[in-house]
Amino acid sequence: MVLFVVFITTILFVYGKASGYGLSYAGIGLIFSGIMAFSSYYYSDKMILGMSGAKQIKKSDNPQLFRTVENLCIGAGVPMPKVYIIEDSAINAFATGRDPKHSVVCVTTGILDRLNKIELEGVIAHELSHVRNYDIRLMAIVVILVGLVALLADFFMRSLWYGGGRRDRSDRGNSQSIFLIIGIIFAILSPIIATLIQLAISRKREFLADASGALLTRYPEGLASALEKISKDKEPLEAANNATAHLYISNPFKIQASSKHWFTNLFNTHPPIEERIKILRSM
Hints:
Layout: H1 2-19, H2 23-52, E1 55-56, H3 63-76, E2 82-86, E3 93-99, E4 102-108, H4 109-114, H5 117-132, H6 135-163, H7 175-217, H8 220-232, H9 262-265, H10 273-281
Parallel strand pairs: 2-4
Antiparallel strand pairs: 1-2, 3-4
Helix pairs in contact: 1-2, 1-6, 1-7, 2-6, 3-5, 5-7, 5-8, 6-7, 7-8, 8-10
């Protein structure tokens, strides 16, 4: 997260110097990012649930699911979250919200149909661990930061195309041309770098949620068995998109590379399921 803040600040400084607006460009960008962060803090969960087509249910709609969530919440010491279901036969789940008091756990109908009670407990414990570890807040902020980087890059390139930039009278000579070249390079590469940072954070938090979930249930095999079934399920989740893919317990597109090469794995939203299962079964 510190790297992300430094990265965005550097981008704003370079774009400002390249456009001839100096630090004023950075000021506008930081104000805009603050507004986006504030909006995401309060409304990101509603946006994510809307995009996913999830529907809130009551205890009478699925007593077993509710009892599972309630029992694990007592063990984890977190408030009961709202429970949502996505009508999709793919096996997946996610958690969202801004804190444990305003959290949501969402599962697909595929999970309810194809996992047994112990496996379901493992999945719910994993998602409640995201809630208890405040991953839901962290990833919401990261998504906004990644979107901000992409918007800044697009805005900078458009300003060059339509306005041609303007020369700052206090900064004449070759310095602005140098910053202009650096700015164009940043505009091309920064969205990719920001996405790589987002994916790295997402993978680390998945490992942590696996460990915390196993500690909560005291039975790592439940989650390991659930992940095994999820890995064998080749059906993509239709409700998922690139903005929400990292939230799910497993890559919802089912196209995650199985390569062990470090460069290939940089672009994965989740750690390899085989590695997660191996770690769980070694506990």
